[in-house]
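Appendix B. Raw example, untouched.
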Amino acid sequence: MRRVNLTFADINKFCLHNPPVSEVLDVIMTTQIIYAKSELIPSFYEALAAVARERVYIEMIEPPPLEKVAGFQNELMGKNGPVYYAVDNGKVVGWCDVFPEENPRQSHRGSLGMGLLPEYRGKGLGSKLLAPVLDHAKKFGLEKVELHVYTTNQPAVALYRKFGFEQEGLLKKYRKLDGRYFDCLAMGKFL
């Protein structure tokens, strides 16, 4: 076993950038990962809107109308497609879904989308959401899951790599927001 010497500054830096273990356990113990339910769509919509308003993690900066979002979610659920919610005390705090491509020649592929409210990030919920969605996507008949992620979102990039996603391309200046460009990774995983 290799011995590592840590200074007080090292420990302090770790503690500043990582939540206390008790906080992580509280979130994990109270948050359930469930298959999406129609009655939770308004709560899902609130979570989607909150993440969109951050303007940095997902493509949209405001969600489409609730009716349109509900239609997409209900359509995917109606097909028993891969769509899961992280729920804490009856409130959707995160989601992960894979929408199959509609073109018959591309229907073996699906596009992944996911998000978590800020106070639920860094606590392992991304992994807890992604694992059942990928399993469900395979049982659903998809052969490949694809996604786009901003290069600035390193925690998400690390999560996807942990689950076996590989970089398939770099889209330079993919997004322009408030005069700033963002590069994007195209990633994919064969199931």
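End of appendix B.
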